[in-house]
Design brief:
With about 290 residues, the protein is mostly helical. About 85% of the residues lie in helices and about 0% in strands. It has 15 helices and no strands.
């Protein structure tokens, strides 16, 4: 012990530290850890030796890496920037590609896939697939049409129900029995292919006259009385008389002079026509005022 007591304090601290160390060594978990380290002593020694060797060869390894990078740069083409970009993109997609490859490997290992592969290699199956691919546009159209049909299923069902209801009402009103309706449909069936054949032309005609039907001129024509049943009947009778007269004159041409006109006026039929023309002229002239 010194005069100032410093030596006594240092020895006391070391004694306490040694006691604490002995207590730690006597703990079961510490002893187990030491046993584990002793069991791995050879591996630890090898690792320490490898790290030491790596550190000693650090400069040599760095030089080799630098030389490899230099050689890689020299081997790259002039558009190495594009290649680098592609490599970066490839590196980003590698995880997805790896997952896809693993999934494909799992799929191809399944017995069902092997049976499918065996079926696909048959010549008749390949020929059928080739025919399907040749009509891929038609198949796409059919699938699209079917999808559209299914999407409008409720609307179509309602339309069919309404049509059947209307047909039933017509049958009741016209006293048509189901047997008569079926007979009429059977009679109509031979004409159906011809109707389908002319349908495009019929649709074209409808498309051409549709603007006229929707115009104000057509509404004015309907209101003018031109389509009045009496007017239509009169125009039809005048047309028939004109066609018959022209046909007769072609077969027996003859000239009619003033005396011939005066003589014809004695005919009651001609007199009725002349009276009609005179009355028409009077009424039409009145409307022109």
């Amino acid at each position: 012990m010194t005069s100032n007591g410093a030596t006594t304090t240092s020895r006391t601290d070391r004694s306490l530290n040694a006691s604490a160390l002995l207590e730690r060594l006597n703990e079961p978990q510490t002893a187990a850890a030491l046993h584990l380290l002793l069991d791995k002593a050879e591996l630890l020694a090898f690792s320490v030796s490898a790290v030491d060797s790596l550190l000693q060869r650090g400069e040599t390894i760095a030089d080799n890496v630098a030389a490899s990078v230099h050689e890689l740069r020299a081997a790259l083409p002039e558009d190495g920037g594009h290649l680098t970009t592609q490599l970066i993109r490839l590196s980003r997609t590698l995880p997805q590609l790896t997952d896809t490859v693993e999934q494909l490997a799992a799929l191809t290992a399944q017995p069902a896939f092997q049976r499918l592969l065996t079926t696909l290699t048959k010549p008749e199956v390949l020929a059928a697939l080739e025919r399907l691919l040749a009509h891929s546009e038609l198949l796409s159209f059919l699938v699209s049409a079917l999808d559209h049909l299914l999407a409008r299923g409720d609307e179509l069902t309602e339309n069919i129900r309404s049509s059947i209801e209307e047909m039933r009402n017509v049958m009741v009103a016209q006293s048509v029995t189901p047997t008569q309706l079926i007979d009429a449909m059977v009679t109509f069936l031979p004409y159906f292919p011809r109707l389908v054949a002319v349908a495009p032309n019929f649709i074209e005609v409808i498309e051409r006259i549709e603007p006229f039907i929707a115009s104000e001129e057509f509404d004015a024509l309907l209101d003018s009385g031109v389509f009045d049943p009496e007017t239509v009947r009169l125009v039809g009778e005048a047309g028939d008389a004109f066609v018959a007269s022209r046909k007769e004159l072609r077969q027996s041409p003859k000239a009619v002079g003033v005396l011939g006109l005066l003589k014809a006026l004695r005919d009651p039929d001609v007199q009725r026509a002349a009276a009609l023309i005179v009355e028409f002229g009077r009424r039409f002239g009145r409307s022109l005022k």
